[in-house]
Amino acid sequence: MKNLKHLFLFLFLCLNAVAQQGGMWLPNLLKGDRETEMKNLGMKLTAEQIYSVNKSSLKDAVPQFDGGCTAEVISNKGLILTNHHCGFDAIQNHSTVEHDYLRDGFWAYKMEDELANPDMVVTFVVRIEDVTSKVLEGTTGLTEADKQKKIQSTIAELTKSLPKEAWQDNLIKTFYDGNQYIRFVTETFKDIRLVGAPPSSIGKFGSDTDNWVWPRHTGDFSIFRIYADKNNRPATYSKDNVPYTPKYFFPISIKGVKENDFTMVMGYPGRTQEYLPSYAVEQLVNTLNPAKIEVRDAALKVQDRFMRKDQAIKIQYASKYASIANYWKKWIGETKGLKKSNAIVEKQKFEAALTAKINAAGKQSEYGQLLSDFEKNYSAIRDYALARDLFTEVVLRNTELLQTGYKLYQLEQLYTNKGEQAFTDRKNTLHKGIDAFYKDYNNEVDKNVFEQLIAIYAQRLPKAFLPSTLENLNATQMAQDIYSTSALTNLEAFRKMLEGDTATVLAKMNQDKGYQLVKSIADAYLQKVAPKFDELNLKNMATQRTYMKAIVELSPKSARIFPDANSTLRVTYGKVKGYKPTDAVYYEPFTTLDGVMEKYVPGDYEFDVPQKLIELHQQKNYGRYANTQGKMPVAFIATNHTTGGNSGSPALDAEGNLIGCNFDRVWEGTMSDVFYSPEICRNIMVDARYILFIIDKFANAQNLINELKIISPKKKK
Ligand code: ARG
Ligand code: ASP
């Protein structure tokens, strides 16, 4: 009996140890429970070393990279590390058929050779503070719509007025669905140069087949450098700028980690929705994800067909293809994972338990309606949400001609609503991005994409929302008509169309068949879908806020209720750990270069391996970077809770040394944005030793190796 009791206690502790993981926490709020938990998992740092207001701390070495990714500073001359897929656009922009840096890689062996990227930015967080009461001031008693308006204007006002240095910015973001507001003082650097990138056969090894999959063998990293003005402050590109001197940079450890070792990741996770009700998850699984997947599936098939037979098209579409494919595949994995983990049923159980707590606390009048409100609203919004996703995917996202046409549509709207001056201003900014757009545009590819996508749009859109132009659609004929005549199909014609006074430009636009179609689709969407969607969505957001409040209020103080991701700086932590993807299968947490060679398919567009790397593998020429078994580590996984935006994030060991660069999650755990499970959700990181090995042995960029602070294991005496 006593033994049984011990066994139960033991099991309970084990379960708790697993269940404790997950969560993306604000770095300024780690003191207390989080710090204790991290120390129990093996961390040797203090919360103050991670985030400090007065001293330099780890957070000073973790900027957001170009809006969507994360990077980490790794030298005192502003060198930063991020993913290959985060630098991909920049690498692609510098590439031509003759100098194909995507294919061959790029290395600057001297600072003069580093390549400038005009629009790239890197943003550091200087300090973080709670401004909830300031933001919510004067909102009690207002209707929901007025309340949101007031909040938006207060945020805009505070963003300007809260004290900061001239070169800094204020950023105010909501946490817990509108229950908390936090201010970030930031510094954005604008002269960021490309320093190094491996060939895609390393940096993108396994490409889309291996994307979101473990075991993984991708050397997904690239290197940039931050430049600042003479005072070490942000400045736009100038040849007089100097390498940035950071407040902190990460030493890189080549000691290696073992399964169950502590690890943490800092970065800028973009968006999670961990507290959605069951009704929303059901809609995601059965209606929204399938529609988005169908659209992207069709677009990808067309692009792939063209890219395979033409190298120039391959370069033009590589980046676009990769980004369409990325979420296409993620939604497939997410849908599967949500089904397999019974997320809807689990959410229902959670809701039943919450209802019981609401009743027990006598809070029926405040919280008693939440779930029935959700049920009503999610059922009402379904068709509108579907229409919105289809519009976004077909028009705004995946058909290039419609995408450009929509910019002109907004231009005309601006004229109608705001007049001549607004029209002219926008027209002038439109010119800017358009060269880059047409550089990577191929009319045949897009025509074929259009033909597929417009047919899906006409078929899947709820009939009540269909514009008359798409009734009885002949997609082939329509594609032919538009793509052989529209000015949206090439740069010269596009520019010509925008020449002349406002009336002339508008007249030309409205005679264009491509524009006419965009206009009819957009009009129908904006009249029949958007207003009702916004109205219902606002209701759902208000309900979600109260729901979140109820969850926080009715949970014990010790509950780990982490805020959803919102592109702000977070810390997530856990252990290096394998997992069981299916019955009878266990995935170990480390991969090696041997596995790269096992996957090698000569000449294949996804699994080719550079000759030099094959030789280094044959000679086992791994220098000081091999693991204790004499193998070259490539990637590893852990229980850190990450999401899109965490790409490029530093993976740190118990001492805070860099041990890897985060770049993905495992297939079985891609549902973690909606339903995190510590059993199967894992983040994937490139091992820092592989990164150093590629820089040192493969690229022979000793200039870079010499800049780094590398921590080696102590030699055994
Ligand atoms: N899945 C990873 C993330 O969401 C990596 C994507 C880049 N690779 C690719 N093959 N598209 O961004
Ligand atoms: N690959 C993602 C990114 O680009 C990371 C993830 O979704 O796990 O941020």
**Beta fraction of the residues?**
5-15%
Q: What is the end-to-end distance?
A: 50 Å
| Helix residue percentage | 40-55%
The CATH architecture of the largest domain can be named as: Beta Barrel
What is the alpha-carbon Rg in Å? 26 Å
**Helical stretch tally:** 25
Q: Residue-averaged pLDDT, rounded? A: 95
Query: What would you call the structural class?
Result: alpha+beta
Domain module count: 3
Shape: globular
Number of strands: 21
Describe it for me?
This protein has 717 residues and is of the alpha+beta class. The protein folds into three domains: 13-121 and 190-268 and 568-711, Thrombin, subunit H, CATH 2.40.10; 122-189, no CATH class; 278-535, no CATH class. The chain is built from 25 helices and 21 strands. Strands 3, 4, 5, 6, 10, 11 and 12 form a seven-stranded antiparallel β-sheet that branches. The protein has a seven-stranded antiparallel β-sheet with strand order 15-14-18-19-20-17-16. β18 (650-652) and β19 form a beta hairpin. The longest helix is centred in the last third of the chain and has 42 residues, at 513-554. It is globular and about 80 Å long. The two termini are 50 Å apart. Aspartic acid is lined by residues 69, 642-647, 663-665.
Quick overview:
The protein is of the alpha+beta class.
What are the salient characteristics of this protein?
seven-stranded antiparallel beta sheet, Thrombin, subunit H, single chain, 14% strand, 717 residues, binds aspartic acid, binds arginine, 3 domains, 21 strands, 25 helices, alpha+beta
Give a topology summary.
Layout: H1 2-19, H2 33-41, H3 47-50, E1 64-65, E2 69-70, E3 72-73, E4 79-82, H4 84-93, H5 101-104, E5 106-107, E6 115-116, E7 122-130, H6 132-136, H7 144-161, E8 168-175, E9 180-189, E10 191-197, H8 200-203, H9 207-210, E11 222-228, E12 242-243, E13 252-253, E14 262-267, H10 278-309, H11 311-340, H12 343-360, H13 364-367, H14 370-398, H15 400-418, H16 420-439, H17 443-460, H18 475-485, H19 491-497, H20 502-511, H21 513-554, E15 570-575, E16 590-592, H22 593-599, H23 611-618, E17 633-638, E18 650-652, E19 658-665, E20 683-687, H24 688-698, H25 702-705, E21 710-711
Parallel strand pairs: 13-21
Antiparallel strand pairs: 1-2, 1-7, 3-4, 4-11, 5-10, 6-10, 7-9, 8-9, 10-11, 11-12, 14-15, 14-18, 16-17, 17-20, 18-19, 19-20
Helix pairs in contact: 10-11, 10-12, 10-14, 10-17, 14-15, 14-17, 14-21, 15-16, 15-21, 17-18
